[in-house]
Every structure is written in C-alpha cells, then in structure tokens.
Write a structure and sequence with these properties.
By secondary structure, the protein is mainly α. It has nine helices and two strands.
Length: 264
Amino acid sequence: MTAIAISNQGLAIAGGFVILAGLVSFALRLGVQTKLWIASARTIVQLGLLGLVLKWVFEQREWYLVTAVLVSMVINAGIAAVRRTERRFSGIWSSGLIAVSVSSVLTTSIVLTLVVSIRPWYEPRYAIPLLGMVLGNTLNGLSLCLDRIMTDLDEKRDVVEGWLALGASRWEACRPFVGDAVRTGMIPIVNSMSVVGIVSLPGMMTGQILAGAPPEDAVRYQIVVMFMIAGATSLGALLAGLLAFHRLVTPNHQLDHHRLRKLG
C-alpha cells in the first residue's frame, strides 16, 4: 500500500476548517480571525517552500546540503525558544542556542547511528524529520524552563539574597529554583507520554501508517521518537536552567537581578 496523494480540491476542502475557526472567532468577537488568516497564509507559503527545498535536498543527497538544513533548523529552534519567554538577560540567545543544539543534536545522532543505524548518517529522509520532531518539542520545554527560572529569580530574589546573606553558596540558594524550572520544562513531554496511544495518535506513527508501514513498525518508531524527545527535553531544560543560573548569579555568590528585564 502506498500513500494517497492529496489533490488541490482536497486542500481546499481542508481549508474550510480554517474558515470555520474564523467564523467562530467572528461570532464570539474574539478578534483573532485576522491573525488566523495571516497564520494560515504563512503556513501555506512556509510549508510550500519547505516542500520544494526538501525535494531538492532529497534528490541531491549531499552531506553539506543536509547539514545546512539541520543547522538552519537548530538555529531557528534556539531563536524560537527565547522569543517565547517574557523576560530576557544578557546572553540568553547564546544560552538558548547552546541548550537546544547540544540536546537535540546529541540525541538525534545517537538514534541515527545506533538505533536506526542509517548509512550514511546524513540520509535526509531520516535525519531531517527526526531532528525536526525533537526540536519542535525540545524548544517548548526549553522556553518553559527559561521563563520559569527567570520569573522565580526576579520575583523571589529576596529569598535568594536571604540565603546568600546567611552564607549559602549560589548553588545552594538557587538549586530549588533550577529544579523547579527543569521540572516545568519536562511537564509537556511527561503528559504526552502518559496519554500516547490512549488519547492521542502521534504524528510519526500516523504518518508511517498512512504511508503503508505495518502498525507494529510504526509503533516501534514512535516509541523511539518519544524516548528521544524525553531525553532531549530533559537535557535541554537542564542546560538552559544551568546556563541561566550562571548568567544571573555571579561567582561571588551575588544575584545580579539587574541583568533581567521584562518585555513590554
């Protein structure tokens, strides 16, 4: 069995769901219909261009082209993770990029070389989708972690400074906040893993089944992907929390909350 291609008529019918969402917004005076139209247009343009690029990359199968796509994905994920935060500090962009790149590239590389055993490692039909799924989930956990630790260190700085004044090291004073931030970043993937296969049928598994893969093979791939995301998210959140901690608390055990600024 092969995948069934979707016609232009089919796409137009699917677009009716977006119109329905716009009508709901208009009827309830939510005021999001314009944003919805713009987001829909961007979806069509961005995915259309992505399809053309990936088609060309898949045909060429050159390592430097695949690497360029992967690097672009990682950079954009790092930027997107920081943009979702309500506060900023000096060095947050580099911290976000380091956290998302180390966590996602490490886990994806292990899966490509040791689990799926792809040869060569840069096979675009595997490398690009797997990294994309990891990045899409990792950046959510990373942004939640960054937002939580910055909020806590800003709003509860009296607690931190109190512990520091009593002689606690910077790690002793901030460890609970780092831990809470990492826990917050891991909540989405833990929730997803709890209901996968019962409430939701994930995209990786759905795509493979639609493409004609046996359900048991699709299940194995989905398990690998969920475990990848869990590992990458936890590692990314940990790195983000530690990097933020080192930026905001000086080696002299002083909380430099002046580095924090709230947007808007």
